[in-house]
Amino acid sequence: MAAPKKGRGSSGGQGRPGRALALILIAMVALTGGMFLSGHTTPRLGIDLAGGTSITLKAKSQPGKPDAINETNMNTAVSIIERRVNGLGVSEAEVQTQGASNIIVNIPKGTNSKQAREQVGTTAQLYFRPVLTVAGGTPTPEGSASPSPSGTGKPSATPSAKASDPETASNSKTTPSASATTQGRAVTDALKKDATPTPSGSAKASESAAASQTPDPATAALEKKFTALDCTDKAARAKAGDGVKPEDPTVACSSEGDAKYLLGPAEVSGTDVDDAKAQFDQQRGIWLVSMDFTDKGSKKFQTITKKLSTQQSPQNQFAISLDGEVVSAPQVNETLSGSAEISGSFTQQSAEDLANVLSYGALPLSFSEDTVTTVTAALGGEQLEAGLIAGAIGLALVVIYLVAYYRGLALIALLSLMASGILTYTIMALLGPAIGFALNLPAVCGAIVAIGITADSFIVYFERIRDEIREGRTLRPAVERAWPRARRTILVSDFVSFLAAAVLFLVTVGKVQGFAFTLGLTTLLDVVVVFLFTKPVMTLMARTKFFASGHPWSGLDPKRLGAKPPLRRSRRVNARTDHPKEA
């Protein structure tokens, strides 16, 4: 009698199926409770289902840097864009590379999605440059006069609590601009003054003086560019500083286009900014952006402000240049360090936008919008509806097949499919806020494919049980003897499916990864459901009279399966019939 007990104990826990059922039921209750407590009762939808905007950014080659478009810079750009968008609360956004020079940004419809679109391709190249000269924003014809910019209402910067008053900074832009000849002379004088050579000895001084009389082609070109620059033209304003290195002087326009500047080499860059925040000044009633510098940046800022504080207007100003446009150009009257403020005619949104791009850094590359595709919520709803209909049709076909072929066993299969569906739904709903998982149409397709994978596991187990019954065994031992063989087949099949999903997830990008992720998740859940739900339920059902007696509607009727006579009984009969002959 000891041997049968050992066999039952080693057969997979025939006597205690309730433990496995209790474990999976507790998991289902915990996941469902967590879903309701978190407030995320539905999976997060991707852009193709919820609607939104898909932007393709194309990297532009950098002047003097032919190898700038590389994998490292592209990955850095993806990271910065993702942090910018997430900083606005659009955590559903997807940012990824496509090919060698494209970045795909998917922004689902929702709060702050418009702001996110405006910031994704903003280079955010911030430089603090000394102002050499300033003039009105329009080009100056030869011999004519140009009105000076008013400067009223433009953003100004207050480098620290001791900085000059913003009103003074704005008024300093009223430096008159006369004819083109006068402008050109001012450019030449400013560049010479900014060079500040330090020769030793009379010979070097004489050489420097002689060189100053010889026209410099670069200076002449910059002088011509400054004179002809029309800052009222938006396109010209955007291209004013194209191709200029940080260490070279350049021309730039104010963000409003009412002033143009000749700027010296960059003294402080955006990488020297440690943090930036949008703040509301209660005393002045304005929005401003405060910046904290790194230790290295603080020293640079102290050096440039010390130099500028000794200059005359407008060369005692420094321009805060963002993506080639001068955001503000305040005066400096004393040495400053540590922090700076950009204040003026900011709204809350514009201040937060600027603080956001400064906080998360400048992109290593310049990008242009290659394509912008808008997906409406109506179209996404239609796609979701079509996907759900396809899933319902697939599930209905599986149910019809199970009922027609397996009859009573179909009940166990349907209960297992329900358990798998509950686990899949709750986990998808919780993965949205946890890791940003968004359910897109390919992911829905992966879930539909998973119905067939899960049903296939049931079919393997049911067929093994039927094989044992055909061999002449009763149901309870057939259930336990069929399990080890079915288990190996199910594990091998699910391992192959999971491996295919993992490879597909690693080698693809975009929405295809959603299909692979869902397929891999549901494959793992198939193993959990078969081991902790289907097998224990089958063990319990084998103890009921309906299944144990081989009812014609149980799906396990020995007669319908063509079962052989019990092997042990046939041996006893032969032994009894042979005994009289021997006697």
Task: Write up this protein.
This protein has 20 helices and 14 strands. It has helices at 2-9, 17-38, 47-50, 71-87, 113-119, 166-171, 180-195, 202-213, 217-228, 234-239, 295-308, 348-359, 377-406, 409-435, 441-470, 475-507, 511-541, 545-548, 558-561, 567-582; strands at residues 52-60, 94-98, 102-108, 126-136, 156-158, 250-254, 259-263, 268-269, 273-281, 286-293, 318-322, 325-328, 339-346, 366-375. It has a 5-stranded mixed barrel with strand order 4-7-6-12-11. A hairpin with a 4-residue loop joins strand 6 and strand 7 (259-263). The longest helix has 33 residues, at 475-507. The chain starts with a helix and ends with a helix.
What does the largest sheet look like?
5 strands, mixed, barrel
What is the number of strand segments? 14
Helicity, as a percent range: 40-55%
Shape: elongated
What percentage of amino acids are in beta strands? 15-25%
The helix-and-strand class reads alpha+beta
The overall average pLDDT, rounded, is 76
Cα-based radius of gyration, to the nearest Å: 38 Å
Number of helices: 20
- Measured between the Cα atoms of the first and last residue, the distance is 33 Å
| Spatial ordering of strands, largest sheet | 4-7-6-12-11
Uncertain stretches: 1-13, 143-180, 196-212, 569-573, 577-583
